[in-house]
Design a protein that fits this description.
With 319 residues, the chain is of the alpha/beta class. It has 13 helices and eight strands. Strands 1, 2, 3, 4, 5, 6, 7 and 8 form an eight-stranded mixed beta sheet that branches. Helix 2 links the parallel strand 2 and strand 3.
């Protein structure tokens, strides 16, 4: 049987937050001894680089054999310079990338510093190469899809783009599949789901100097770049594995909620999707799959409970 797929992922305070990550800049002396030297791919010497891709990696040894070929395809399609940033990996992620990409791989191997520190390390290596894509290591994306995002940025129609986000539900429990189906059926998935793959223009990236130390890098970008300059490119797609269980959904959404609370303390708010609450109410009243909708709401309630009533009234509107 075919694996089921659930279809769609104050300025002063900001500067203060951003300054905390200034230590994330990477020099050769800060790399672990096993780090590959950073050098431009030899093939790029004869072809102009049209964009950059930064891939933060943290213990993705099981997923990398599936996702690396797509990233390489996307890199060829867009003539991209690719920077892999292993961030405190304790598995074989570094070696897998080295073996699959080859001797010209550009890989950083960092001590654990957090995802946004890894993104900043990649930015530091890319210098002035734009547009730029930030792709989670567990994301499946192909050359055609990244090319569509690249075209939107180069044409100037947007400064922040993402593809349509899908969940691969193979191996997930029945209730997890139903939660994923509910999540991806809601307006957020079609309007404001900037997850997994972020494409940012030079103008968009100029809205902040260095990545701040926050959990939600995608929500930070969406809260910082003007909403009118954001686009979901629904003709492009990317996918990741769905959480395998109800408990795994709660853990993932707690990270999302934590990130949104951090942004609120920075006086930042990502644009909410129009009609999200109405769509949820309609699913509860008319279906389809009221059980899945109830499970979705239960996960959301559990994920925000720890932040208290002052926060919980704000957090749910986005997701």
């Amino acid at each position: 049987m075919r694996s089921p797929v659930c279809y769609s992922r104050s300025c002063s305070r900001l500067h203060a937050e951003a300054s905390r990550s200034s230590s994330a800049q990477v020099s050769c002396s800060q790399m672990l001894p096993s780090c590959l030297p950073i050098r431009k791919n030899e093939a790029m010497k004869s072809a102009a680089v049209s964009c950059g891709i930064v891939i933060p990696v943290c213990n993705e040894a099981q997923r990398l054999p599936e996702t690396v070929p797509g990233i390489l395809s996307a890199g060829r399609a867009t003539k991209a310079r690719i920077i892999w940033v292993c961030n405190g990996c304790t598995d074989d992620s570094f070696q897998i990338i080295k073996n699959m990409v080859g001797q010209n791989a550009e890989v950083l191997n960092l001590d654990p510093r957090g995802k946004t520190a890894a993104l900043q390390a990649g930015d530091d290596q890319l210098g002035h190469i734009f547009p730029r894509f930030y792709v989670d290591a567990d994301i499946l994306i192909e050359g055609r899809d990244l090319s569509l995002l690249h075209a939107a940025l180069v044409s100037g129609v947007a400064d922040l783009v993402s593809p349509r986000y899908e969940f691969d539900c193979s191996g997930a429990s029945n209730i997890s599949q139903r939660i994923a189906e509910c999540w991806m059926s809601l307006p957020h998935a079609r309007q404001t789901a900037f997850h997994g793959v972020l494409g940012i223009s030079e103008k968009g990236r100029a809205h902040w100097e260095r990545w701040p130390d926050v959990v939600g890098d995608d929500a930070f970008a969406a809260a910082t770049i003007p909403a009118k300059r954001q686009r979901l490119i629904l003709g492009a797609k990317a996918s990741s594995r769905s959480p395998e269980s109800f408990a795994a959904w709660v853990r993932m959404r707690r990270r999302w909620s934590r990130g949104l609370v951090q942004l609120r303390k920075m006086e930042l708010c990502p644009p909410p999707a129009r009609g999200q609450k109405r769509a949820l109410l309609l699913r509860l009243l008319r279906g389809p799959d009221r059980i899945g909708t109830c499970a979705f709401l239960a996960v959301r309630a559990a994920s925000i409970a720890q932040w208290g009533t002052a926060e919980s009234g704000w957090v749910p509107a986005r997701y």
